[in-house]
Design brief:
Length: 157
């Protein structure tokens, strides 16, 4: 009952008439979030490259609205601005990385404007437009030396 009430609660944005529903994934236990994270993160496309072997890419290099993105909360309705950084997020050494972001359904790449044109920041909802559970979102650095920042994330229910 409490979980249902929390899902129904709305948070008002200051100075806006809009309201945003609370993400029900926030109510999951730590164990369930870890299980989701393990299903979402796909590391089978990680290609090592001698050029970027010593590049400082932090494990939390994928940011959502400027803070490390907990991918356990990723779903087809996710929204906000994603970006990639090298160095520790939030530290003075943080540097934004140009990347491409796109969806893949099976072996078919779902082309969008962010596949052709590299960006430093993009709305995740635009990348996820038309996405279905089972699709894969790929956030791929443009520069070879940043290869360790590539993220392949499977959308699950």
């Amino acid at each position: 009952m409490l979980k249902l009430l929390l899902c129904i609660l709305l948070t008002l944005q200051i100075g806006a008439v809009q309201a945003q529903a609370v993400n029900p994934l926030l109510l999951l236990s730590k164990e369930r979030l870890k299980e989701r994270r393990d299903k979402i993160i796909q590391d089978n496309e990680f290609v090592r490259n001698e050029v970027g072997r010593h590049t400082n890419i932090h494990v939390d290099c994928l940011l959502l609205n400027g803070v490390p993105f907990d991918v356990a909360l990723l779903d087809t309705k996710s929204w906000g601005l994603i970006s990639l950084v090298r160095g520790k997020p939030g530290s003075p050494e943080q540097e934004h990385i140009p990347f491409r972001a796109y969806l893949r359904r099976g072996d078919i790449v779902m082309h969008n404007a962010f596949f052709q044109n590299p960006v430093y920041e993009v709305s995740i909802s635009k990348v996820l437009s038309g996405a279905k559970p089972g699709d894969v979102i790929i956030v791929e650095p443009v520069r070879d030396e940043d290869y360790k920042a590539k993220r392949v994330l499977k959308l699950i229910d």
